[in-house]
Amino acid sequence: MNTKPQQGGYATVDDLKVYFEVHGGSLEGGKTPLVLLPGGMLAIETAFTKDLLPRFARSRPVIAMEMQGHGHTGDRPGPIQLERMVKDVVGVLAHLGVKRAHLLGHSLGGMIATGVCVHHPEVVASATLLSVTYTLEGMLPELVKMQRDPTHVPSPELIPLLPTEADFVSWKTNFDKYNPDPSSFESVLARLNTLLTEWKGWSTAQLNGIRAPVLLALGDNDFTRLKHAAEMYRLIPGSKLAVLPNTTHMNIIERGAWLEPMVQELISRAEGA
């Protein structure tokens, strides 16, 4: 499948050049685009080119973005802030002249997409949130412990759910190839961990206030606790919840055959089709 973008480049947002690619046809064609937001330390190539990007680009324009310190996008000094990455998404859309878009975010990308729903609802046509939580405690208890204590040795039960050494090699190879400062990989990773540990989460009132159609999807062996996902589903009005079998936090982005019809139904509902 062809994954060469029709358009690509940078949008300067708050003094940061944020990288984006446009696939699946012109943004001037009248169809509301789908925005893809990768998870932490992932990039467009490592997250989406294998499955989700070419799959959705068959039916509408797809805007894939790389957030601060990821892929082609450089870093900012100081702590990495979720709120700034939310503004970066909105800034890229403004740069492209896109007034509304469907969002699909995985993990950190799903957190960012949720933030856009909460703080910039006017630009959100629908949102698909893969493997997300609304508080750190929504993750498996041992993952919360690991997040707060980097010296914790993961249990044999947890290890199969975690990124593998091959995953990290793939991420670092992409980073070395494209990032303006390849030496910043470890710094970005450490500050992302700090972001997650210190994140206050979304309030129940903020989730209650989301009005865009939302699909929550996670794996049956995900980082997110199923009970927490069900709570999030109840808090977001009119949302849908999907639990994918034999699926982890890492391989849910390869479940396009299952996700595509659900996302297309969500988009159709949002567009009144």
Name the structural class: alpha/beta
Average pLDDT level: 95
Distance between the termini: 28 Å
Shape: globular
Strand content: 15-25%
What is the spatial order of strands in the main beta sheet? 1-2-4-3-5-6-7-8
Q: What is the count of DSSP helices, taking H or I runs of 4+ residues?
A: 10
Low-confidence stretches: none
Number of β-strand runs: 8
**What's the assembly state of these chains?**
single chain
Query: Roughly how much helix do the residues carry, as a percent range?
Result: 25-40%
Q: Profile the largest sheet.
A: 8 strands, mixed
Give me the Rg, rounded: 17 Å
How is this structure best described in words?
The structure is a single chain. This protein is α/β, with parallel strands linked by helices. Helices cover 37% and strands 20% of the residues. The chain contains 10 helices and 8 strands. Strands 1-2-4-3-5-6-7-8 form an 8-stranded mixed sheet, sandwiched between helices. Helix 3 crosses helix 4 (108-119). The longest helix has 15 residues, at 82-96. The chain is globular, with a radius of gyration of 17 Å. The mean pLDDT is 95.
Write the layout of secondary structure elements.
Elements: E1 7-13, E2 16-23, E3 34-37, H1 44-47, H2 52-56, E4 62-66, H3 82-96, E5 101-106, H4 108-119, E6 124-130, H5 141-148, H6 165-178, H7 185-198, H8 204-208, E7 214-221, H9 226-235, E8 240-248, H10 256-270
Parallel strand pairs: 3-4, 3-5, 5-6, 6-7, 7-8
Antiparallel strand pairs: 1-2, 2-4
